[in-house]
Amino acid sequence: MDSLIIMFISVFAGFLGAILGLGGGIIVVPALTLFFGIDIRYAIAASLISIIATSSGAAASFLKDHLTNLRLAVVLEVGTVLGAIIGFIITVKIENGPLFILFGSFLLFSSYNMFKRKGDSHTDQNHPWSESLNLHSSYPVNGQLVHYSVAGLPLGIFIMTMAGVLSALLGIGSGIFKIMAMDGVMKLPMKVSSATSNFMIGVTASASAGAYLLRGDIRAEIACPVAVGIIVGSYFGAKVMPKLPTQIIRKCFIVVMLVVATQMIYKGLNHGN
Amino acid sequence: MVIEDLELKIAKILRIGILISGIVMLVGWILNAASGGSSLSTFKDYDHLELSAQLLIAYKNHQWGILISFFGLTLLVLLPLLRVFLTAILFFVQKEIRMGFIATFVFLSLITSFFLGVKL
Lengths: 273, 120
Description:
The complex is a heterodimer. Chain A is mainly α. Chain A has one domain. Chain A has helices at 2-20, 25-35, 40-64, 70-93, 96-115, 128-133, 153-170, 175-185, 190-215, 220-240, 246-269, and strands spanning 137-141, 144-148. A two-stranded antiparallel ribbon of chain A has the order 1-2. Chain A is globular and about 55 Å long. In chain B, α1 packs antiparallel against α3 and α3 (64-93) packs antiparallel against α4 (97-119). The chains are: A mainly alpha, B mainly alpha. Chains A and B meet through α1, α3, α4, α9 and α10 of A and α1, α2, α3 and α4 of B.
């Protein structure tokens, strides 16, 4: 019965995540830990499975729109995968309390980020590495192709490494940080940043998910209902998204995230109990 | 054919892979639930038990639902690896040697990350 409830919560998480452009991890991890009292390590491991499912399943859509910069994604995956390896090593050594505090802080940051108005970046100046690897590209705007260059590649790779660390530590996709790096540092257009970030998330999650799986932290009784629920929820969420008042849902979700963030931080300060 | 079109074909293969792994996980989950399964209270406290040990226990106890579930989970985790591997081959075929080596590095890093789970 409990695993059925987990499945339904995961359907909701996948549905809401697809509407709001968030990964399921941001809902799944707090639900599993606060509602079911499951140890945060099992929750994080299960969350990574759901992230692989949604990102890999949607990769074709990201490519079809010709927004994803595939070459840049491959280069940046060097950073995210190395970061995920570092993150997994830290997770093995860290206590539960700091994980809760870190997750709660991440929720606070995500709430702030959802409020912030996002402008569009652009540059005509390639970083020399970007020039050398031919990473600049173009994307469709109103039926026309607009060219963009890729600046700040080394710093972008560094931020991707940090995003990979957080992904492994918290069981999230770290899409927010990836978009920050691509938009703020590499000066990519927002649509390209978003599509490329979503395209990469599955590989990032896989890096630590494989380690968690062999270590035994991915428990089938938890991960399977989570994965099935997220796949189903995100499929329907993507279908209805254009018809829903996203802004109203987003504002309600920000309030919920703030409440959950407070609870996670409080739990962390009580040493994860 | 440009590399993005070829990568789109790979992504569509991934989508089928996700569907297959999802069905396998669903079957495993249902079988496990039907045979009683473990209560979630088992997972309130962390207990390190390697995958190999879990599989051995499940096999000895004839917990086929658990074994099938882990098969589905393994399929799912390996799919992004497959994508990166095929992307590396694509780059080499298109004579983009540097990008091919970068993708190969990502692939080898992913393999290494998996075995950290056994080491640590």
